[in-house]
Every structure is written in C-alpha cells, then in structure tokens.
Amino acid sequence: MFVCSCFGVTDQQIKAHAAAGACTPRQIASVTKAGTDCGNCVRTIQGLLGRGACPRRELIAEHALSSVAEQTDRVALDEAA
C-alpha cells in the first residue's frame, strides 16, 4: 500500500526503515522524502512507527536517570560534609 503518493513510498519501505532504526517521521522523511511535500501521509507514518522502543529515547531516558542519580549523590555528599 502506498503511504506517500507524492513520492511513491510504501508501508513496507516505512517498516523496513523503522526496523533499521528510524523512529520518527522526520527520520523517515530524510531517507524517503515521505511527508515533505503535501504532508497528508505524516499521520500514517506515525501510526506505522507506533510507540515502540526507540533506541534514542532509551538513551535519553538512561542519561536522565543517571544525571538525577549523580545530582542526588552530590547533594548527599554536600550534606555529609
């Protein structure tokens, strides 16, 4: 099925790029141009990408948790001194 009729991008192409690591419509657009002309396909692309695990989101979450843990450790050390 065609997702983007402007550039002839199919749902299988979107799924293949998602499996290769693309997890946002912008990342899909950078590879396929889908969503960069009329924009009618962006919601469909979002639906195909779903809310699955995105490696970048996982890295951001891990970084945020480690930053909070470091700040907590610093506060504890400051209070102990």
Notable features of this structure?
81 residues; mainly alpha; two-stranded antiparallel ribbon; 2 strands; elongated
Topology:
Layout: E1 2-4, E2 9-10, H1 11-19, H2 25-32, H3 42-49, H4 55-80
Antiparallel strand pairs: 1-2
Describe, in plain words, how this protein is organized in 3D.
This protein has 81 residues and is mainly alpha-helical. Helices cover 63% and strands 6% of the residues. The chain is built from four helices and two strands. It has helices spanning 11-19, 25-32, 42-49, 55-80; strands spanning 2-4, 9-10. Strands 1-2 form a two-stranded antiparallel sheet. A hairpin with a 4-residue loop joins β1 and β2 (9-10). The chain is elongated and about 65 Å long. The model has no long low-confidence stretch (mean pLDDT 79).
Distance between the termini: 65 Å
Number of helices: 4
Strand content: 5-15%
Helix and strand element order: EEHHHH
Shape: elongated
Radius of gyration: 19 Å
- Estimated structural class: mainly alpha
Unreliable stretches:
none
Q: Helicity level, as a percent range?
A: 55-70%
Mean pLDDT: 79
Number of strands: 2
Largest sheet: 2 strands, antiparallel
Q: Biggest sheet: strands side by side, in what order? A: 1-2
